Structures are given as C-alpha cells and as structure tokens.
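Support reply, case 0932

Customer input (verbatim):
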Amino acid sequence: MTPPAQPLTLAAETGTGGILLWVALPYVALAVFVLGHIWRYRYDKFGWTTRSSQLYERRLLRIGSPLFHFGILIVLLGHIGGLAIPESWTEAAGISEDAYHVSAVVLGTIAGVATVGGLAILIYRRRTVGPVFSATTRNDKAMYLSLTLTIALGLAATVAANIVGGGYNYRETISPWFRSIFYLQPDPDLMSEAPVLFQLHALSALLLFAFWPFTRLVHMLTAPLGYLSRPYIVYRSRDTGLGARAPRRGWERIG
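Our regenerated output:
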C-alpha cells in the first residue's frame, strides 16, 4: 500500500532553518513588538495616531472601514481562541472537534472575506482619491502590503486545507507550538509538520508584528478614555464687534 503523501512544508525536518524560523524569529518578533511600542509611546507620542483621512473622503470610508474592522476583530478573536485554548479544554466543555471545526471554518471564512473586502475598498480609496493618496506615506504602503499578505495567506490556508482539501487540524501542531513559545519551551518540530500555507501565514504574521510598532497600527492598542473626563473646548471669537447681539453672560471676551 502506498503511504499517504506528506504535506508540503518549508522545513520537513528540524535543523538550523527550523530553529531560526520557529524559535529565533518568534522571540525576535515578540521583543521588537513589545520594545518597539514602548519606544514609540515614549519618543513619538504625537505620531501615535491613525492619521485619519476622513476629511478628504467619506463615502468609501463609511463602507470599507466598518467592514474591515469588524472582520479583523472576529479574525483576531478566532486566532486567540484557536491558538491559546487547548483542544482538551473545548472537549471538556462539551464542544466536539467536528462542531468546533465547522464553526471555525464558517465564521473564519466569513470574517476573512469581510476583512479582505473592506481592505480592498480602503486600498482602492487610498489609491484613487487624490488627497488621500497624497497623504499616504511609504510606511503606509509597506504596512498595507504586509497586512494584505498576512490576511490573504491566512484565508488561502483556510480555503485550501478545509474547503478544497480534506481538512487540517491546526490545533494539534500550530497551536501547541504557539503556546510553547510563551512557555519558554519552543518545539519547532510541531510547526515543521504544518502545511506550507500555514507556515507562510505564520511567518508573514511574525514579520507584521515586528513591523507593527512603527506603523499607524499602534492605534489598535489605545482607547480614547480621556474623552470621557476631559472638559469641553470653548471657542470664542476674537472680534468683539462680530454679530448684532451682545454676547451672553459667560461668553464675554476676556482681556
């Protein structure tokens, strides 16, 4: 009997390449992600912004931005759940592997399509609307390229393995490898067994996280809580003769 074909991988056996890809690179990316945000917040607070372009164009932004943000939020939550929560925990909670697999594929595909669609609209808007394109930096272009590559590879891996192919349970290889990084006991053998599209998706994600602190993506780690307690901003005219009526009490010019 002919043995089943092994999935195509970047490193079938763990060697120097496997150690560099699945041990060294994750720790380098994690260190750059953490230290980069600390540096950025300390030395570039004024640059810690989305550099909103809403004033230049709103119609496409009103469609693409919610589609992308809600889609990517579901994708991130799905990744956190699938990578951080062991398979034994969901089984103990009464969720079978088949039920988990079906729900993950359905929700992941829908969220992935929404994310790609929203991102496509945002990129189209940024390229075709003159003022928005003029405000786009090289850093923004590199960020969009890295983000698009990571999302596209993740969606391609999901479709190829679970819709076109016979299915692949990443919770037996990729998820334990991911947790082993944080346990400080990395096991590159687990990741070396994964199909090549999943490996490429993981590598692109590591590079994206290393690039993250130096892009506008830093705004995802902040929340405008100060708006809840800051005082109102009062605007007063410098021209005391402006208008036919006398100013109301409390609105008189000072000085």
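We compared this against your earlier run and they match. Two observations from our side: Residues 234 and 251 are 9 Å apart (CA to CA). The chain has a mean pLDDT of 85. Please reopen the case if you see a mismatch on your end.
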